[in-house]
Amino acid sequence: MKQVIKLTSMNGEPILIGVESIISVRLTKYSDRAGIDDFRTKIESRGAMISTNYVLESVEEIYELINQ
């Protein structure tokens, strides 16, 4: 299992997330600033506080990245 995975944030920039700090990964409804609803993958991870990131990869893709 990998220690860190590289994902793509909503604005197209890469982000790194430590696998051991991931709390949950799920598909969720996401509303952008224009009020347009879409479904995105939401990742909650722990650190000093809980961080939330929305990424372009699906839950299945994240699972494969972790378990390669």
Helix and strand arrangement:
Blueprint: E1 4-8, E2 14-18, E3 22-31, E4 37-46, E5 50-55, H1 59-66
What would a concise description of this structure say?
With 68 residues, the protein is mainly beta. 12% of the residues lie in helices and 53% in strands. The model has no long low-confidence stretch (mean pLDDT 90).
Describe, in plain words, how this protein is organized in 3D:
With 68 residues, the chain is mainly beta. It has one domain. The protein contains one helix and five strands, in the order βββββα. The strands form two sheets. The chain has a three-stranded antiparallel beta sheet with strand order 3-4-5, with no helix packed on it. A two-stranded antiparallel ribbon has the order 1-2. A hairpin with a 5-residue loop joins strand 1 and strand 2.
Name the helicity range.
10-25%
The dominant shape is globular
List the domain count as a whole number: 1
Count of distinct strands: 5
Tell me the series of helices and strands, N- to C-terminal.
EEEEEH
Largest sheet: 3 strands, antiparallel
Low-confidence stretches: none
Keywords:
two-stranded antiparallel sheet; globular; mainly beta; 12% helix
